[in-house]
């Protein structure tokens, strides 16, 4: 795979939060996160509309079987603040996916969480069909790119930040050419949640 041609893709809002916050050199997990990584995800109707249900199923299962503390199930109820998955379109040509974290503020309103200093209530994952289909990083097919983006964004919901670009990781911020968690990603996941 030609990593030299990878474009500046997979840009997430989380990246800007990353840039704004204090960050220990080399650390690729967020200090904050949901109270538990044994949790459920709710699929918005847009996921089925695009026919991406099995893709998100794979994205969830990709993070299973690594740590006994990490398992993302699927729920058809929006009660108890599950993570919520969406597929849509974006006018931002450099945006493939987006995985912000939310919390309740002192007034009980849902607001963006600080990924490093808050306990998150839930995350949303959005994958953008139009930009994914226009842009595949070196060597990946469109379907592999879709898997890369969904797995990457779901990784953010597990408190994984962006890996250094020198690492072989589905969590690098630009043009990830892996489409499932690598050994590096599995080690990072266990460093956050335990074995
Ligand atoms: Zn990202």
TrEMBL record:
Does the record bear Signal in its keywords? yes
Record's keyword annotation contains Signal: yes
Which residues lie in coiled coils? none
Keywords carried by this UniProt record: Signal
Molecular function (GO) terms for this protein are: metallopeptidase activity
- Signal peptide range equals 1-27
The record's section on Gene3D superfamilies has: Collagenase (Catalytic Domain)
Q: Could you tell me what this protein is called?
A: Peptidase M10 metallopeptidase domain-containing protein
Q: What is the originating organism of this protein?
A: Cohnella endophytica
